[in-house]
Structures are given as structure tokens and as C-alpha cells.
Design brief:
The chain has 273 residues and is α/β, with parallel strands linked by helices. 49% of the residues lie in helices and 9% in strands. It has 2 domains: 11-169, HUPs (Rossmann fold), CATH 3.40.50; 185-272, no CATH class. The protein has a 5-stranded parallel sheet with strand order 3-2-1-4-5.
């Protein structure tokens, strides 16, 4: 008979959001650290409000990993917790969605087991903070920071694996619910043009609030019924185009300055191109 007091082995856990960093980390672990991959439990917290592209990507990633990705929240999705929270929509200041659909399911999944969670924060983003559990039995590791991997490495990992970036990166900058309040205006336009049914669903939440005397909007200071108007879409697309030109110009200027600062006595080649 085994000793009932025998301590369980430490669990190795990697949560996948459907975004580039956590996905690249799973691929990196599988290919570079097979001994950890063998013990790893991959999981995905399905909010019930995911983009189709996200769900498709998780399925493709599962094939590459050759291990199951455990789906959390099989029953209690966003609509369940929306009703539980009095039908009050989440905001950046009141993120009950993150707490109920991400943090709690994860901590319930771990229970009281000793666990190491692997986080995809990169070496080039020291200011970024991921979820840090307050539970003493859960510790975190940051393999990309430990191994000095930056955004270019992450892109290469995804490209070289054949998995590549999730399709939503063509029009969206982050993973998350289709109505995420952190979306930019142009990302709402992208949702409207690619998934009008989901856009209408997000708009219905605003309509419900309006009917009950609340002024909350998903997109800061603007109702979705206005944002989807053709003339408004044209304004947003033009503003986005101009912003990207400015960002590209600023990036080129920074690169030139860095090249000039590091140039030797022969001069900076970038100034003579």
C-alpha cells in the first residue's frame, strides 16, 4: 500500500490565450525543453465569447503540441457571469470578467497542488506584468526572459513551426473576447466587417444597458451603433492610416539615431543609403 502522506509531484502549467506570446512559448517548450513538455499541462480558458479565429488557432496548436489543451469554463461562460453580476457589463475599472473567467478557473484547476506556471512575457518587455497568483503553492517562470527572447524570436518561433500567427492579427492586436473593451476603434471596425453577427451581439449588450438607464459603451465614449456608420468607419480608417504613417516615421527616426550613435569613425552607413 502506498504512503497516503506521499507528496504529489509539482505540476507544470501553461495557460494559452490564443495570442502570439503564450502560443510561441508552448511551441518553444515543446521543441527546446521536451522533458518539461512531457510534464506540461496546457490549458485554455474559454470565455464563451472567443473569436472563431481564436478557437481555430487553439485547435491547430493542439495538433502541433501533440498533447491535449484542457478547456476550462465548459459551462460557466460570460453570459452566466453577466447575469450573476446583475447584467452590468465589465469595464477596465471593474473587470469581473477576468476574475471569473480567467483567474478563478485557473486557481480551481490548480487547487492546493504545488505548481509552476509558465508565462510568455518576453525579454524586451520588462514593464509588462502577467498574472501573479497570491496563492503560496503557485510560482511562476518566465522562459523567454530567462533565455533572452524578444519579439523577433517569438515571430521566428511561430513561423518556423508552421503554426504562424493567429488569423485575427490581420486586423486585431490582441487575443480576448470579441467585445473586449481594450479594443481600438479600428479593431471594432474589423469585427464589424469580418464578424457582423458578433458585432451585433456586442451592440445588443449596449442596447440592454441603454434600456435600463445606463450609459456604458464598449468603445470609449462611443456607442457601437454610431461606430458602424459608413462615414464613421471612413473616418476611423483614415485616422488609422495616418497614425501608422507617424508610427513608421518615428520608428525609422529611432533606428537612424541608434545607428548614428553606434557608428565608428568611418561614418554611419544608414545616412548614405
Amino acid at each position: 500500500m502506498s504512503d497516503l502522506t506521499e507528496k504529489k509531484p509539482v505540476r507544470h502549467l501553461l495557460g494559452l490565450s490564443g495570442g502570439k506570446d503564450s502560443s510561441a512559448l508552448a511551441i518553444y517548450i515543446r521543441d527546446k525543453y521536451p522533458e518539461i513538455h512531457e510534464k506540461m499541462e496546457y490549458f485554455f480558458s474559454d470565455t464563451g465569447a472567443e473569436l472563431p479565429e481564436t478557437l481555430d488557432f487553439i485547435n491547430e496548436l493542439e495538433k502541433y503540441l501533440r498533447k491535449p489543451i484542457i478547456r476550462l469554463n465548459p459551462v460557466k461562460d460570460f453570459k452566466f457571469y453577466l447575469k450573476l453580476n446583475g447584467n452590468i457589463l465589465p469595464t477596465a475599472k471593474m473587470r469581473w470578467c477576468t476574475n471569473n473567467l480567467k483567474i478563478k478557473p485557473f486557481e480551481e484547476f490548480v487547487g492546493n497542488d504545488d505548481a509552476i506556471t509558465y508565462v510568455g512575457i518576453r525579454a524586451d518587455e520588462p514593464q509588462r506584468q502577467g498574472y501573479i497568483s497570491t496563492k503560496p503553492n503557485i510560482s511562476a517562470r518566465y522562459p523567454f526572459i530567462e533565455d533572452g527572447k524578444d519579439i523577433n524570436d517569438i515571430r521566428n518561433i511561430l513561423r518556423d513551426s508552421g503554426v504562424d500567427l493567429p488569423a485575427y492579427y490581420e486586423w486585431r492586436s490582441r487575443s480576448g473576447c470579441y467585445f473586449c473593451f481594450f479594443q481600438r476603434k479600428e479593431e471594432w471596425v474589423g469585427l464589424y466587417e469580418r464578424h457582423p453577427d458578433l458585432y451585433e451581439e456586442a451592440m445588443s449588450y449596449e442596447d440592454f444597458h441603454k434600456a435600463h438607464g445606463r450609459s456604458h459603451t464598449w468603445s470609449d465614449g462611443e456607442r457601437l451603433e454610431h461606430l458602424k456608420l459608413p462615414e464613421r468607419i471612413a473616418e476611423i480608417k483614415e485616422a488609422t492610416r495616418l497614425r501608422k504613417i507617424q508610427e513608421t516615421s518615428k520608428l525609422k527616426k529611432n533606428l537612424m539615431e541608434r545607428n548614428c550613435e553606434s557608428a565608428d569613425e568611418l561614418g554611419c552607413l544608414a545616412c548614405h543609403l
